[in-house]
């Protein structure tokens, strides 16, 4: 009997999801210190790799995107293959993977979003920030979406960095965005934007906001927009003031926002209003079902017995006129075919990376990493530790892992036989080069190939 993980019989691993967690998992497998010989196949339902780095990171944050160079080194390893435009559950079933791989890791992220749960959320002009981010980043599933950029005001609900991202994109001029890799269709649409006021509303106070200092500081440096804060929001309650003493990140955020008081408007045509201790209670619409405003309530803050500072609605409400609402209150994982799902946490049911059944028993050979393992938390680098932890469990389980039957047809042959036109990493390199070439022609970092027919056209012309 041949032992798994040897030269005679390498450990074969399928990684479903070629975003940060998927690449970190692949890298950890390749670098394992146990001397296990590994072969890794990365699958993604989109033609391009890198997941959230390509489709989630804001286009004006190019430095964060540079992590893709690290992933590229992993993809170029001769022990790794990439299969893009291959969807689990449609092109490949669980049984297909179990026959060909000894272990399978699901790293599909959190592809949906949390609703606000208020009236009017389904009106025209009400969207998730997830949709908006995917649209301006060139996600093929969102290329044809439209947003109410003809309105004079937009409301962004949320107190995290995604809320800041969408607010900043709305507030920036086309001239500021042009050099970036923002999708061309988004740049064209934003060129005609009439939005003058962007309201970022958060249910708790500035001391509880989850912004990063770097992202927040950018709002004091926008060319055509002025950051606006209310003095009343910075009259901190006793518990919030005390919490700042032990939280340097929150203290830094408050200091930056207090600095917005000293900014001179300078005739800038746009404004970004930060409204704290404010919650939406209803999205208002006209007779045609179009968003015309948001009814909000003022909150007061009180600490709970555990020390958590909770918001409580008062009886003071008012309306903010707007034609666009973007909710940014959290991502949410979605269920995958044939896999147990923890609906409460919105993750694939797992015990520290090992997928578990209804009774809590580990399902041999199945693992998770990233947001679909722990929920949407942390930054891109957080997925490295998460994926490395899962890989450690995989290696611990190696002796008890049954070898896959390994039919004669390789997964590439299986997909080809099913008529699936998958994208290899070599294909992606050609697409990448073409995007950069198109960018150079127009004075941009790159022009993304968004639609699948564009991708096929480039690959056919360069084959």
Q: List unreliable stretches of 5+ residues.
A: none
Task: Indicate the CATH topology of the largest domain.
Answer: FAD/NAD(P)-binding domain
How many structural units, i.e. domains? 2
Spatial strand order of the main sheet: 3-2-1-4-20-19-18
Estimate percent helicity: 25-40%
**Total beta strand runs:** 20
Q: Please write the CATH class name of the largest domain.
A: Alpha Beta
Mean pLDDT: 95
Assigned CATH architecture of the largest domain = 3-Layer(bba) Sandwich
| Quaternary organisation of the protein chains | single chain
Secondary-structure-derived class: alpha/beta
In short:
The chain is α/β, with parallel strands linked by helices and 463 residues long.
What does this protein look like?
This protein has helices at residues 20-30, 52-55, 62-65, 68-75, 94-100, 129-136, 161-171, 174-177, 184-191, 213-217, 238-245, 248-259, 371-374, 382-396, 411-417, 425-442, 452-461; strands at residues 11-16, 38-44, 80-84, 103-106, 112-113, 126-128, 153-157, 197-201, 225-229, 270-275, 278-285, 291-303, 309-321, 324-327, 331-332, 341-342, 347-348, 350-351, 354-356, 362-368. With 463 residues, the protein is of the alpha/beta class. The protein has two domains: 11-111 and 333-423, 3-Layer(aba) Sandwich (Rossmann fold); 114-331, FAD/NAD(P)-binding domain (3-Layer(bba) Sandwich), CATH 3.50.50.60. The strands form five sheets. It has a seven-stranded mixed sheet with strand order 3-2-1-4-20-19-18, with helices on both faces. A six-stranded parallel sheet has the order 6-14-7-8-10-9. A three-stranded antiparallel sheet has the order 11-12-13, with no helix packed on it. The longest helix is centred in the last third of the chain and has 18 residues, at 425-442. It is globular. The chain starts with 10 loop residues before the first strand and ends with a helix. The mean pLDDT is 95.
